[in-house]
Amino acid sequence: MTDARETATPATSAPVPLLDPREGIPPVTASPEALADVVAAFAAGSGPVAVDAERASGYRYGQRAYLVQLRRAGAGTALIDPVECPDLSALGEVLADTEWVLHAATQDLPCLAELGMRPAVLFDTELAGRLAGFARVGLGAMVENVLGYALEKGHSAVDWSTRPLPEPWLRYAALDVELLVDLRDALEEELGTQGKLEWALEEFAAIAAAPPPPPRVDPWRRTSGMHKVRRRRQIGVVRELWQARDRTARDRDVSPGRVLSDAAIVTAALENPPNVHALAALPGFGHRMGRRQLEQWQAAIDRARALPERELPQPTAAYTGPPPPRAWPDKDPDAAARLSAARAAVTALAEELNLPQENLVSPDTVRRLCWSPPSELTPEVVASTLSSLGARPWQITLITPLLTQSLTARPAEH
Fold first, then answer.
1. What CATH architecture is 219-311?
2. What burial letters (b/e) apply to 393-403, b meaning 16+ CB within 10 Å?
3. Taking burial as the number of CB atoms within 10 A of a residue's CB, which of 33, 95, 246, 389 is the most buried?
4. Are strands 99-102 and 46-55 parallel, antiparallel or unpaired?
């Protein structure tokens, strides 16, 4: 009997609902013995391996994986519980020379690395979709548009730390890797037809080789609504409350937003309540919050209130790059003219190539080049500068002529 998936429905037809994995829902691997069987099966498999991970964002502290899904020809699908099997390095080793197929790889690679799994070669179906010019690049949209199947996506935001995991969630997780390799093959063909496959392979190699990102400096500055807080003393309150919340969330292993909302932090910073009674009257610190919690938050506010002026945070974070582009016309009209010309050139080329501007060249790279251009404006020097800023060879080949010309732009005469 021929599986329907072997003759994919054309994307122009109504999508066919994909309701069950072709071999059924596999048992969850949750013991050393079961993991050893999975390692052996995937070592004996062939071709690329589809990989996915589910986290508990919004429920738990951090971004650890709570389920890892894999599929490979000859091995079938595996669902691994990384709580019970926290060391997957043996699996990573047998797949070391295998191409991994992931969707939005940069989202899953950090939590997979924590488990001992790091790909040497990968294919990112989301990034491939962007480079191929697809308007919608979510996994469901890509599978539907490219392969003609409709994935059920109702469980993407559930609490994957739940144990035992309900069967509908496991079915959803297995289906997430069911067609990833099929999608990869179709996108490789499409990219080849468009003459973009080498570009994609350079991008995938850069992702696989990238070192772990450094810890974020002053992560409390990303508090939602922070733009409303302008005085240094108020900013100090945000910092103290954010840090107190982060410690509590880490200790309890819950998402920080479930401990105290960003909106509550900003409100407290703006209102500067003098005591627990006043704090309890503010939105986000209502009747559900116990006295002990309220005292904890008030203590953080009091610490900020007691800080000497020299220890208060600056209104803006230290930054080594160029200033915000809106300030360029006043600070450096020549730089503003260069940036305007460069943006127009990049936009036009991106539209011609049918890919997002940010994938043609990083906006930050363009800003840095325009703010501090090399002293010698030759294609060779501009190309070298782009390389030092992290641009890939295919990007450098395409944009060097445009940017070299843009760097000679001057402000219009009035």
1. Orthogonal Bundle (1.10)
2. ebbbebbbebb
3. 95
4. parallel
CA separation, residue 155 to residues 64, 159, 166, 170, 241 (Å): 18, 9, 11, 10, 32
Phi, psi angle pair for 226, to nearest 5°? -60, -25
Residues of the chain short of pLDDT 70, as ranges, are 1-12, 413-414
Q: According to the model, what pLDDT value does residue 292 have? A: 92
How many angstroms separate the Cα of 172 from the Cα of each of 20, 27, 80, 269, 284?
A: 8, 14, 14, 42, 35
User: At the fourth CATH level, which superfamily is domain 9-209?
Assistant: Ribonuclease H-like superfamily/Ribonuclease H (3.30.420.10)
Report residue 184: phi and psi, to 5°.
Answer: -60, -45
DSSP string covering 126-170: HHHHHHHT-S--SHHHHIIIII-EEE--TTTTS-TT-SSPPHHHH
Identify the pLDDT of residue 80: 98
Model pLDDT, residue 5: 40
One fold for 9-209 and 219-311 = no
Q: How far is CA 348 from the centre of its chain?
A: 27
116 and 87 Cβ atoms separated by less than 8 Å: yes
Query: How confident is the model at residue 317, as a pLDDT?
Result: 81
User: Would you tell me which CATH number, out of the four given (1.10.150.80, 3.40.50.360, 3.30.1330.30, 3.40.470.10), belongs to the domain 325-406?
Assistant: 1.10.150.80
Please tell me the distance from the alpha carbon of residue 37 to that of residue 79, in angstroms, as a whole number.
12
CA angle 230, 235, 237 (to 5 degrees): 135
C-alpha count within 13 angstroms, C-beta hemisphere, residue 112: 22
Q: What is the pLDDT of residue 12?
A: 56
Nearest Cα to 51, choosing from 138, 111, 134?
A: 111
- In whole angstroms, give the CA distance from residue 175 to residue 77: 9
Is the bond into 329 cis (omega within 30 degrees of 0)? no
Residue 77 has what DSSP assignment?
E
Q: What is the pLDDT of residue 230?
A: 94
pLDDT number for residue 414: 53
Q: What are the structural domain ranges in the chain?
A: 9-209, 219-311, 325-406
